[in-house]
Design a protein that fits this description.
Layout lengths: L6 H18 L4 H19 L6 H23 L6 H8 L8 H24 L9 H25 L6 H5 L3 H23 L4 H23 L3 H12 L5 H8 L3
Length: 251
């Protein structure tokens, strides 16, 4: 599939991924559905003039999205993907991961690894510093969307509230903390990569990928005591991927 060159093409390609996953009853569609909603929000924010440089933000959005779209299709075709995405995609074959774990594993791969790379490609060298304010502005957009998504997930995962007991914090704190930490890492990655030569970038990205893959596997396979608690939540979750996708794609 040709790489997207506009945010509208990104949305179209994400629609295709979601529908493919719906037909296959694949849980890989969970992240795609969430990501489509974020992308629509970014498009709306650009149109509303919320960013200092709208065209640059579209550039970032497209480069960023293409990394996920390319990984999804490569995985389906049996081609190599980064370790971070391999960890997220392999989880589809296991029953145990919660809907939330699938979403977080996707966020981990895409934000902790892909976002910094895309930002450095969109604004290489000294240009990266001019992106700082717009990059931070996306955090506000993500948090605006967060509560709506959590409310929808709780419909198909009615015992999500047990995360309070298992982890000592609400699912809201889990998601917001993960996004905030991931975006901070992504920005630092962008600053590191922007001035590097291609060879230096490749080596840096390989090291980062190993780290992000480890994080993803921890998200999907936490320590045994935590895993036992999550299993209780999983037993009450909807197992019908189509039903979950319907919920995640609601406006």
């Amino acid at each position: 599939m040709p790489a997207a060159t506009s945010i509208d093409q990104v949305i179209d390609q994400l629609d295709e991924i979601v529908e493919t996953c719906r037909k296959r009853s694949s849980r890989l569609g969970y992240f795609a559905a969430l990501y489509r909603r974020v992308t629509v929000k970014v498009k709306q924010a650009i149109a509303a003039g919320r960013y200092e440089d709208g065209p640059r933000m579209e550039c970032l959005d497209v480069l960023f999205a293409n990394r996920y779209i390319d990984a999804f299709h490569a995985w389906g075709a049996g081609r190599p993907v980064t370790g971070a995405w391999r960890a997220a995609f392999e989880a589809e074959s296991r029953w145990e991961p919660l809907i939330l774990q699938h979403l977080l594993a996707g966020m981990n791969a895409h934000i902790n690894l892909d976002l910094g790379i895309a930002a450095a490609e969109c604004a290489p060298g000294d240009a990266i510093t001019a992106m700082a304010a717009d990059f931070r502005a996306i955090n506000d957009l993500l948090f605006e969307l967060n509560q709506k998504v959590e409310d929808q997930v709780s419909v198909v995962s009615p015992w999500m509230g047990l995360l309070d007991t298992i982890g000592g914090r609400t699912e809201d704190a889990v998601v917001e903390f993960s996004i905030a930490k991931a975006r901070a890492l992504a920005w630092n990655t962008a600053l590191d990569l922007a001035p590097m030569s291609p060879a230096e970038r490749e080596a840096h990205i390989a090291r980062l990928d190993n780290f992000v893959e480890t994080l993803g596997r921890l998200v999907l396979r936490p320590p045994p005591v935590t895993r036992a608690g999550l299993l209780v939540i999983r037993m009450r979750e909807a197992s019908d991927a189509g039903r979950v996708l319907d919920m995640l794609t609601e406006p």
